[in-house]
Design a protein that fits this description.
Keywords: Hydrolase. The chain is an alpha/beta fold and 381 residues long. It contains 17 helices and 10 strands.
């Protein structure tokens, strides 16, 4: 007998069986396809089933409506934590991180069609898909990691993929929450192909012809046939002269040094991009900025599983100590006036940041993720 939870899970993730192809559609358009627990558990169930099914050669993931995915549906999690039900929040993120690991290390071809907004945890759903396809109106702002504005930090594998963007572009995106359009995502490597939305139906039909013989080559040829190469718009942050400033400033050791370097650049050559970047940094949570910078820097030298284990530790510690002012101001009360504690960068000590990166005390009921593969959890001990 199908339970109410199973019915909700099945309605929030639609599945189409197309010969050797499975098309999974996130179906919460009114919530911008935010990842509820039902969505996460259903996706995990399906990806694990397809992994061992020899009939499945290709998995396509897309979103219903105007968004691909706006990240995790954190409001219920926040409400649980406010009520003292921290274990439910930990379990939610444990399942989400496990899903991200399964997708990041998947042996079969994945194509994520990001036809719409991609934010926060929605980016984790494509962190190592073989093909990350952008197909929205060319200069729409479609990608962002806005965690520092919420008093959080980029997670679900973000420290892995942001740290691998060219130069120090990942630090810029992760700390400022900068919004990128399709052309910028393609240029920096967050997406692999750009296809106009008007051609998506035809593209899916062709991809569903993938057979059992060399599906890698077949799908690549189809994607390449549909791909266009958009140009960066005039004021894009990915133009060479801006990238030089990003690398010069965001390569600095601390957040304070990054801001000081940007302020010097603003004096020497006033520029609206620099002003906007400084405003974003000064608006964000001081603690989040320092935690996020360290996380991205550590991610540069870790594999994706190590990043996810560490990020889960960080998330779990955050759940134990506070409900962030950003989440309160943006998600709950919606007054958009967070009262950060500490209020200033210089008040955020190294010891405060270190707490987020320590191994969890299992005697207190917390434990590391153990579901990746044998021996992985020993890597960060």
């Amino acid at each position: 007998m199908t339970t109410a939870v199973e019915m909700a899970s099945h309605s929030q993730v639609l599945m189409e069986d197309k010969y050797t192809v499975r098309i999974l559609t996130l179906n919460r358009p009114n919530q911008m396809n935010a990842l509820s627990w039902n969505v996460i558990t259903r996706l995990l169930q399906l990806f694990l089933a397809y992994k061992d099914d020899p009939r499945v050669k290709l998995v396509i993931l897309k979103g219903q409506g105007k968004s691909f995915c706006a990240g995790g549906d954190v409001r219920p999690v926040i409400c649980d934590i406010v009520q003292g039900k921290w274990r439910l929040g930990a379990d939610f993120f444990s399942d989400q991180y496990t899903l991200n690991y399964v997708m990041a290390t998947y042996s079969k071809i994945q194509i994520s069609i990001m036809n719409g907004i991609v934010m926060g945890g929605g980016a984790g759903d494509k962190e190592r898909a073989v093909n990350m396809l952008i197909s929205l109106r060319l200069f729409s702002k479609v990608f962002a990691m806005p965690e520092t504005e919420l008093g959080l930090f980029p997670d679900v594998g973000a420290s892995y993929f942001l740290s691998r963007l060219p130069g120090f572009f990942g630090e810029y995106v992760g700390l400022t929450g900068a919004r990128l359009d399709g052309a910028e995502m393609l240029a920096c490597g967050l997406a692999t192909h750009f296809v106009p939305s008007t051609r998506l139906t035809a593209l899916e039909a062709d991809l569903c012809r993938v057979g059992s013989n060399d599906p890698d080559t077949f799908s690549s040829k189809i994607l390449n046939a549909y791909t266009q190469h958009p140009h960066l718009k005039q004021h894009s942050a990915y133009h060479r002269h801006v990238l030089d400033v990003i690398d010069k400033c965001f390569s600095r050791r601390t957040v304070e040094e990054i801001i000081s370097a940007l302020e010097r650049e603003a004096i020497q050559e006033p520029d609206e991009w620099i002003s906007a970047t400084l405003r974003a940094l000064k608006k964000a949570s001081p603690a989040s900025l320092k935690i996020s910078l360290r996380s991205i820097r550590e991610g540069r030298f870790q594999e994706v599983g190590e990043c996810l284990i560490r990020e889960y530790r960080m998330r779990s510690f955050q759940h134990r100590v506070l409900i962030t002012q950003g989440c309160r101001a943006v998600v709950i009360d919606k007054d958009r006036k967070p009262k950060w504690k500490p209020r200033r960068l210089e008040q955020v000590t190294d010891n405060m940041v270190d707490q987020y990166f320590k191994r969890m005390d299992e005697e207190e009921g917390w434990e590391d993720l153990k579901s990746f593969h044998q021996g992985l959890t020993c890597l960060l001990q």
